[in-house]
Amino acid sequence: MILIRPKHEILTEINGGQILQRIEAAGRTCYKSESKITAESAKPFVSRIIKSGHHSVIEHESISVRFICDRGVTHELVRHRLCAFSQESTRYCDYGGKHRCPDVTFIIPPWISIEPGEYRSPEDIRIITNPGYYWALAMLDAERMYATLRQHDWTPQQARSVLPNSLKTEIVVTANLREWRHILKLRASPAAHPQMSELMIPLLGDLTWKIPVIFDDINIGEN
Questions:
Q1: Is residue 175 helix, strand or coil?
Q2: What does the pLDDT read at residue 159?
């Protein structure tokens, strides 16, 4: 089996200044104040929009993000319905076992201390402190059972029934900026599941750095 840590990748090419300019151009339509647009007016305009709660204006801009995480996290993520989702399918993706050695990838939970890498036997995982050892052993067993079922002519969509929530999956999420604010306020907070916040806190940091104003008021410590 292969053990990895979760991560994200922003797929949309982001120019924060241009995003603010487009939001300003859309927002000033409401007041017919386009004549007030200057080279420096976008940032304070969008800041006022955010503070006033007039968040529908920032819906004009969307961002796509690829997440590599465990399937348990995606079960929570897809509950945000104002998004587009494209997820790796366990029905059609064959993780091996019939004509080749199994190569199943699992996501390491943040509360388990182990280096990412390949682990092929119980002896390989004895370096993990209990009870994390038992989690890793369960992943080895799941991989072995998946391979056994594939070798007995079960299809990938049948054999997947023994794969756990810790299975690695990839999901591309597209949402407008208002929805990303909503997601990050919920999922980067202390109340979020640890694996969800592990994924979302770095994304919040990236978006705050890339796009001025839009995410500045979202604090990791918020409940």
A1: strand
A2: 95
Q: Where are the beta strands (DSSP E) in the chain?
A: 2-4, 7-10, 62-70, 84-87, 105-107, 117-118, 168-176
222: which residues sit within 8 A by CB, 6+ positions away? 185, 188, 189
pLDDT digits 0-9 by tens, 99-135: 666 789 999 999 999 999 999 899 998 888 778 999 9
- Positive/negative CA dihedral, 202, 205, 210, 214: positive
Reduced to 3 states (helix: H, G, I; strand: E, B; else coil), residue 105 is strand
83 three-class SS: coil
Exposure of 13 by Cβ count < 10 A (0-12 exposed, 13-18 middle, 19+ buried)?
A: exposed
Partners of 172 in beta bridges = 66, 86
Of how many residues is the chain composed? Answer: 223
192 close to 73: Cβ distance less than 8 angstroms = no
The question of whether 28 is a catalytic residue gets the answer no
Q: Active site residue: 28, 178, 181, 187, which one?
A: 187
Percent of the chain with pLDDT over 90: 87
pTM: 0.93
Average pLDDT over residues 141-168: 95
Are the CB atoms for 27 and 54 separated by under 8 Å?
Answer: yes
Residue with tokens 């998946």: 146
